[in-house]
Design brief:
The chain has 292 residues and is mainly α. 74% of the residues lie in helices and 2% in strands. It has a two-stranded antiparallel ribbon with strand order 1-2. It is globular, with a radius of gyration of 24 Å.
């Protein structure tokens, strides 16, 4: 009885994980192997046919590459910008408290609402951004070749990456700021007394001790950005065509007509995010081992 006592405390958490995480995964795997009509009626087993049809889709290779670019660009830019912001907010300057509060705004607002606002701002005819650029003489108003930012895949992708970085900055910056504030100041005083420069102290003290907070922010950003849906959907619906689809948006588009293939895409997405996280954790663990 004494050995089973911890189960009384762990039971609720285990039950929650089983219901919220494990059960949907099992159901998703089952759905990916069923033949389902567009109205949701299961006809029978499809075996691996849904996966075969999905892998034969000519749009899939481009979507996978675009997803990789999307994740790498958003996470990379977010981590770099957040590191700079965390360093800034870790210093004392007039108005620091107000600046910290202002940084929370993109995080507090709904991601879908933020994407909608940017879509309205980028409207070719009367969007605020295009009107401003027209006044500066950078773009010609009503010219679809220059002012239709969301109508061209390259510019649409760039703007969506910018919006994704904008909404990701608050959480990442505060995570890194917490890591910076946890570093004892005595270490920097000792390094200064030993004649170490600021850059040497930053490289030898700050970055190694910031690695745990950096790893947490990186992994959470990887998962969030990979699974990101509202920004792309609200700004372009994945269009034109499939040119701004990521695997998550493509999965939703498949859901409109091919539920089995959409479930298969979900299974692949789940596998990809597990691989990404495990790969990053492996690299991070190897870096920590080398640092020791």
């Amino acid at each position: 009885r004494r050995r089973l006592a911890p189960l009384a405390w762990l039971g609720p958490a285990i039950a929650l994980i089983a219901v919220v995480v494990l059960w949907p995964i099992v159901t998703l795997a089952q759905t990916s192997m069923q033949d389902i009509t567009p109205i949701g009626v299961t006809i029978g087993s499809a075996g691996a046919n849904n996966f075969r049809q999905l892998l034969d889709d000519p749009n899939l290779p481009g979507i996978l590459v675009r997803t990789l670019v999307w994740v790498a660009a958003v996470v990379g830019l977010t981590m770099l910008a957040s590191l700079g912001l965390a360093q800034l907010f870790n210093q004392r300057f007039p108005g620091r408290r107000v600046a910290r509060w202002a940084l929370i705004a993109p995080w507090a607002a709904s991601v879908m609402m933020t994407a909608l606002i940017f879509r309205w701002m980028l409207q070719p005819d009367n969007g605020v951004i295009n009107v401003f650029l027209h006044q500066l003489g950078i773009v010609r108003q009503f010219d679809s070749n220059t002012s239709s930012w969301l109508g061209r895949p390259d510019s649409a992708m760039a703007w969506m990456i910018g919006v994704a970085v904008f909404v990701s900055l608050p959480f990442t910056s505060y995570t890194l700021l917490a890591g910076l504030q946890a570093i004892p100041g005595e270490l920097f005083e000792a390094a200064r007394m030993d004649g170490a420069s600021r850059w040497r102290a930053y490289r030898s003290i700050t970055l190694p001790l910031l690695r745990p907070a950096f790893a947490v922010a990186m992994v959470i950003n990887l998962m969030n950005v990979f699974n990101s849906f509202p920004i792309i959907w609200e700004m372009t619906r994945g269009g034109p065509g499939y040119e701004t689809n990521t695997t998550t948006v493509f999965m939703y588009n498949l859901k409109q007509s091919y539920l089995g293939e959409a479930a298969a895409m979900s299974v692949i997405n789940f596998g990809l995010i597990i691989i990404i996280v495990l790969a990053y954790l492996r690299v991070s663990r190897a870096a920590r081992t080398e640092a020791r």
